[in-house]
Amino acid sequence: MSLTIKFWGVRGSLPSAPTPTEWTYHIEGVLRNFFSLGYRDLSQVSKYIKSIEEPVVGGYGTATTSVELRCGRSQIIIDGGSGIRTLSESIMTGTLGRAKGPFHIFMTHFHWDHVIGLPFFTPHFIPGSEIHYYAVQSDLEQLIRGIFKRPYFPVPFEDLKAKIHFHVLEPRKPVKVDDFTVTPFKLDHPDPCWGYKVEAAGKTYAHCVDTEGTRVTPEELGEDLPLYQNVDVMYFDAQYTLPELAEKANWGHSAAQVGLEIALREGIRRVLFAHHDPGARSEHVMELKRQTGEYYQSLISKASENKENINEIIWDFAHEGLEIVL
């Protein structure tokens, strides 16, 4: 049995898409690249598309945070950003099966970008459907009820057809959901935000957005250090460059370089960076990726010079629709 992770939304703060003018320039660049690489015939378009990274053509996506994890017939969802709407469509068209659930939704916190998609999760409106919400926040039920309330949404919570259950979690205490073991750990965010360590099929995923990474050393992380230990894949907040991180202290978001430092020290095998800024177009994220690559190589070179043993990691910037299987 394997653990499958799919990222239905990877943008932060606000759903955001390029303007028509920006898309025009982007497409023009893609076409120019086609010819500059020596392609001439339309029959070569598919070959060209397959030869480059998906975000180079389609961008990194517009939807905010929502991550699905599957193991066998078990499924959990982390956060209800606008990406959960697309997940909902897949569920309703039968692509994923089990239209009535039960569905298990773990909430990190309740900023707009993490809840905006919840009213568009169709199983809420299906008689006999069953939805379980989980969060450390003690007012979980009140917060979810408040989303389904006029004037924010026309259908009140009391009119939802699904059976909805609420589970308040204890910090750093694991909970079992089918084939998953899920443990909440505190992140560095202005409003309380809880990351999740998810274990299934002998693999471990660490969900670490939104976090500023103000605590980095083992001593600083203290009882939250296990979130980063014995992890196969870490999903880490990288909304800013290092200079931007200094300018936006206490905004609750981090830079890829911070995540790399933690990953290398703790021996994390793979890192995906996300929570892309709403103003960040494809070229901006690719520039972040270039800067991250330079920083990563400097860390590797420094370790080599000092004759230190270091486990190299696989890292990238996540895009909407990305699916990985462990």
Automatic annotation (TrEMBL):
Sorted alphabetically, which Gene3D superfamilies does this protein's record hold? Answer: Ribonuclease Z/Hydroxyacylglutathione hydrolase-like
What SMART domains does UniProt report for this protein, alphabetically?
Lactamase_B (SM00849)
Under SUPFAM superfamilies, the record lists: Metallo-hydrolase/oxidoreductase
Q: Which residues belong to any copy of the Metallo-beta-lactamase domain? A: 63-275
Signal peptide location? none
* Protein name, as recorded: MBL fold metallo-hydrolase
Q: In which organism is this protein found?
A: Bdellovibrio svalbardensis
